């Protein structure tokens, strides 16, 4: 007969958890891998340009509409922060581009129904939660930008010309510009860290968005130099698109989106990212 002490000891022993998902392996990459991913992204874009042009065009047109509304409402001071902050939701807009690269990688047929079906699949609901997270950060950024403007310029709305004069020729305006860019950069780095891997990972694997964000942050922490290099390249590409009044997004967004998939794949090997294919 087993004694009460022995029985209690057995009950206290940890039991193996059935069906536990194995930890996600994160590779160590270099800046050369970033360059290779960028080249692969350009090849993916040229192989199926219509998809990339569609998503890039959608993003550009949305930017034009938002700027048009701001100028119509005489909210000129919000044009720059909103245009810059618009990049915070770019990872979700680029999800369609990630799916194109994923299907090209696996030799799956490309179609609009397959691409949009993958994004909206019931098994990918956590992708929607990530969209909520990034949209929420955009709202936070708009609030921060508004507060900074009120601190430096008060309640008087400046027209575009007066705002540009104040920002470029007065000490108060230069401090305003520097502080605003610093706040935007810090928020942008945060969004980059939580989203650079999480969006493609959620398309590729059946996991929750919290795990995806943690994996994304781990990828950045474990590969600081190449991921910082990648963040700078993304920021530079989006900045050039901003200077072109969003016209550059027709090319920049899809190329960076395809390249982001390849950066993800270099970080998370394919054998660690197997999942059932959603029906088209």
| Oligomeric state, counting identical vs distinct chains | single chain
Q: Percent of residues in beta strands?
A: under 5%
* Measured distance between first and last alpha carbons: 59 Å
Q: What is the number of E strands?
A: 0
Structural class: mainly alpha
Number of domains: 1
Set out the fold topology.
Elements: H1 4-12, H2 31-47, H3 49-72, H4 79-85, H5 90-93, H6 95-106, H7 112-120, H8 125-153, H9 160-169, H10 171-195, H11 198-204, H12 209-222, H13 224-243, H14 249-267
Give short descriptive properties of this protein.
mainly alpha; 280 residues
Structure explained in plain terms:
There is one protein chain. By secondary structure, the protein is mostly helical. It has one domain. It is 74% helix and 0% strand. It contains 14 helices and no strands. Helix 2 crosses helix 14, helix 6 crosses helix 11 and helix 13 runs antiparallel to helix 14. The longest helix has 29 residues. It is globular and about 55 Å long.
Summarize the model shown:
The protein is mainly α. The chain has helices at 4-12, 31-47, 49-72, 79-85, 90-93, 95-106, 112-120, 125-153, 160-169, 171-195, 198-204, 209-222, 224-243, 249-267. It has one domain (29-272).
């Amino acid at each position: 007969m087993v004694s009460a002490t022995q029985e209690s000891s057995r009950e206290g022993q940890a039991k193996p958890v059935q069906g536990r998902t194995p930890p996600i392996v994160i590779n160590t990459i270099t800046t050369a891998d970033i360059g290779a991913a960028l080249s692969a992204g350009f090849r993916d874009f040229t192989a199926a340009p219509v998809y990339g042009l569609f998503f890039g065009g959608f993003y550009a047109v949305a930017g034009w509409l938002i700027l048009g509304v701001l100028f119509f409402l005489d909210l000129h001071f919000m044009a720059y922060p909103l245009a810059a902050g618009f990049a915070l939701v770019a990872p979700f807009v680029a999800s369609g581009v990630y799916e194109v690269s994923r299907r090209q990688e696996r030799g799956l047929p490309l179609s609009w129904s397959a691409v949009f079906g993958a994004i909206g699949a019931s098994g990918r609901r956590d992708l929607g939660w990530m969209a909520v997270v990034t949209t929420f950060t955009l709202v936070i950024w708009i609030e921060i930008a508004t507060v900074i403007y009120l601190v430096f310029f008060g309640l008087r709305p400046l027209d575009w010309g007066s705002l540009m004069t104040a920002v470029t020729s007065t000490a108060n305006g230069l401090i305003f510009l520097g502080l605003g860019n610093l706040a935007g950069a810090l928020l942008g780095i945060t969004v980059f860290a939580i989203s650079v891997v999480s969006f493609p990972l959620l398309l590729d694997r059946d996991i929750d968005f919290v795990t995806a964000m943690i994996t994304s942050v781990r990828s950045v922490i474990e590969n600081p130099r190449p991921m910082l290099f990648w963040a700078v390249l993304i920021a530079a590409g989006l900045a050039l698109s901003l200077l072109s009044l969003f016209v550059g997004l027709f090319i920049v967004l899809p190329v960076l989106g395809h390249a982001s998939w390849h950066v993800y794949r270099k970080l998370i090997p394919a054998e660690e990212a197997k999942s059932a294919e959603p029906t088209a």
